[in-house]
Amino acid sequence: MAKSPEQEHPVKAFGWAARDSCGHLSPFKFSRRATGDKDVTFKVLYCGICHSDLHCIKNEWRDSVYPMVPGHEIVGVVTEVGPEVTKFKVGDKVGVGCLVGSCHSCESCVNDLENYCPEWILTYNSKYTDGTITYGGYSDIMVADEHFVVAIPDNLPLDGAAPLLCAGITVYSPLRHYGLDKPGLHVGVVGLGGLGHMAVKFAKAMGIKVTVISTSPGKREEAVGRLGADSFLVSRDQEQMEAAKGTMDGIIDTVSTVHSLLPLIALLKSQGKLVLVGAPEKPLELPAFPLLTGRKVVGGSAIGGLKETQEMINFASQHGITSDIEVISMDYVNTAMERLAKADVRYRFVIDIGNSLKSTA
Amino acid sequence: MAKAPCQEHPQKVLGWAAVDKSGTLSPFHFSRRENGDDDVTVKIQYCGVCHSDLHLAKNDWGFTNYPVVPGHEIVGAVTKVGSNVNKFKVGDRVGVGVIVDSCRSCECCQQDLENYCPQVIFTYNSHSKDGSKTYGGYSDFIVVDQRFVLRFPEGLPSDAGAPLLCAGITVYSPMKYYGMTEPGKHLGVAGLGGLGHIAVKLGKAFGLKVTVISSSPRKEAEAIQRLGADSFLVTSDLVKMKAAFGTMDYIIDTVSAVHPLAPLISLLKLNGKLVTVGLPDKPLELPIFPLVLGRKLVGGSDVGGMKETQEMLDFCAMHNIAADIELIRMEEINTAMERLAKSDVKYRFVIDVGNSLPSRY
């Protein structure tokens, strides 16, 4: 008979979990493995709320296993390291993002692209190598293989750094991979949410001219006044969109609902690149003519490998980049999810785990 | 009152034109400019029948300006050169492809990418800088600025070489631009027609492993035994398609009818590139998840600039690459168009203009 979550592993753990696809989160006792030879155990202090957490607790991708403890933007302080761990010691500030395992031998893994490993193991809702389900960062402690742990430099506040572990790397990686990181280029960012606002900050730090493209005219002041974008386009304003045609070297599209690609492709210069990092469930329409006549490209990107994630954190540290967050207590999480569904947050909720996750044990 | 086509310019020309969207071609008297200082006059010997000719004759794309004289795979002999012409002399064997002019000053033109110039002028169905219509190669001669005339290398046959001027460059250019030239890599060619069969030949010349992806099982023997492809996939054979998932570094998609992209994207490896060179008249469905999770991209490409077209002709001459053709007489063009609509040709019709179009020239 399968062991209960509390009995699966030797170390007691406590978190909040969704029990079914209505997505309501509530206190949950479970357990984690003992610190293995290559493991790092840390006390979780903060965990960002990613939109993926919301999709997963509601089983929108139809692969959810319950009970589910979400959370893959996890930061904290090391409490124990295994004997073979070389990169971390007790007291270090660390983070874990979307991945906790991969095969280590395929072409992707060998090229530091664990995020594209066909056998990747996600931080939550995945099957670990020992057959048990992985539980994420809405919890008091975390145990992860050293390979999947990143160091958080001292100058980065832990709460603002947490969202870098998913939102940050998700936009940083394609800016680098698609060559949209050169000073003087003009890059558009579609959608000004958790991903979008990070894309603006990274791109500005790379010396890029940034235009935010949004359906909400109300976000102009934020985008230009506070986040430092160079300009703002309201996507429903035909005149503005027409005037901006053929002006962008690239576009990072963070929108995860179905939307039209044609007006975005039109904004690109010849040889421009439209990169999708949001993943609408249904296919989008791809008009062939504009793609061909401008030798344009539509590509995708998903998070980043561990080496690049560390590089991104170091870049953020160098440039003083953190996420704009609203810190909440653990018991606010269900309200936060409702607000997140309406995009009512600037721009990431971060759960103050350290101060508000209380075990009832 | 607008001048009649035969009175617009001083030199009388005989060609065949479509006058309405039935697409039926018939003899048509029109005129061309005098040979200017920068011009080359070419007596046309051969003209390839491109699928675009059929699309435009029937106004499939909605922008045909009747009457239209198609033809942009033109090979012939120089009969006159202007006083500024230094690249060609009377008697030279030359080609004229898809483009006869551009703005010459924009970023694209300066980078030898006249094909992406926003003011590009096509060989037919466009307007010259003097405002008059351009008429293509289903005619007895053509007058073109020397910058847009190509030297036909020794060893390249005039008839079988003609289709290289559109079909050839259409697949050569993206193969270079998207990096499909690393020996040992695996190229998929979707569609085995005018474009596809040349892509197979070029792929083998670049040292690639080539798989043809087709909806017609009957093309397998041709593809492998005659064209030299390494393997053949029938798109309706789901078992074989699935077995080939994640095996291709790149795919050139030459199919011009609306077709599903999802199976082609699945055939790509991580970081794989699907380049579409066919022009379906409706948008295609693009599934986003596979693009994001495999960091794959879909790109377009549209013929090539003049420098690259010359490079392609020289490459083909060196590697003995020419099109597989069926030579027809001018008066057989309508039957050829009907057969082309059913893909009943291996693999390009070429009109023997020199021997079948009575010329006053």
Automatic annotation (TrEMBL), chain A:
InterPro entries linked: ADH-like_C, ADH-like_N, ADH_Zn_CS, CAD-like, ER, GroES-like_sf, NAD(P)-bd_dom_sf
Highest taxon of the lineage: Eukaryota
Listed EC numbers: 1.1.1.195
GO molecular function list: cinnamyl-alcohol dehydrogenase activity; zinc ion binding
CDD domains: CAD1 (cd05283)
Pathway where it operates: Aromatic compound metabolism; phenylpropanoid biosynthesis
Any GO BP: lignin biosynthetic process
Short name of any one Pfam family annotated for the protein: ADH_zinc_N
Catalysed reaction, written as an equation: (E)-cinnamyl alcohol + NADP(+) = (E)-cinnamaldehyde + NADPH + H(+)
Stretches assigned to the Enoyl reductase (ER) domain: 23-351
Keywords: Lignin biosynthesis, Metal-binding, NADP, Oxidoreductase, Zinc
Cofactor(s) listed: Zn(2+)
Gene3D superfamilies to which the protein is assigned, alphabetical: Medium-chain alcohol dehydrogenases, catalytic domain (3.90.180.10), NAD(P)-binding Rossmann-like Domain (3.40.50.720)
Family matches, as PANTHER family: ALDEHYDE REDUCTASE
Subunit details: Homodimer.
Family according to the record: Belongs to the zinc-containing alcohol dehydrogenase family.
Main function: Involved in lignin biosynthesis. Catalyzes the final step specific for the production of lignin monomers. Catalyzes the NADPH-dependent reduction of coniferaldehyde, 5-hydroxyconiferaldehyde, sinapaldehyde, 4-coumaraldehyde and caffeyl aldehyde to their respective alcohols.
Protein name: cinnamyl-alcohol dehydrogenase
Name of the gene this protein is made from: LOC116199656
UniProtKB/TrEMBL annotation, chain B:
Cofactor(s) needed by this chain: Zn(2+)
PANTHER family the record matches: ALDEHYDE REDUCTASE (PTHR42683)
Keyword entries, A-Z: Metal-binding, Oxidoreductase, Zinc
Species in which this protein is naturally found: Punica granatum (Pomegranate)
Pfam families per UniProt: ADH_N, ADH_zinc_N
MF terms (GO), sorted A to Z: metal ion binding; oxidoreductase activity, acting on the CH-OH group of donors, NAD or NADP as acceptor
CDD domains per the UniProt record, alphabetical: CAD1
Family classification: Belongs to the zinc-containing alcohol dehydrogenase family.
Assembly, per entry: Homodimer.
Gene Ontology terms describing biological process: lignin biosynthetic process
Top-rank taxon, per record: Eukaryota
Domain Enoyl reductase (ER): 23-351
Protein name: Probable cinnamyl alcohol dehydrogenase 9
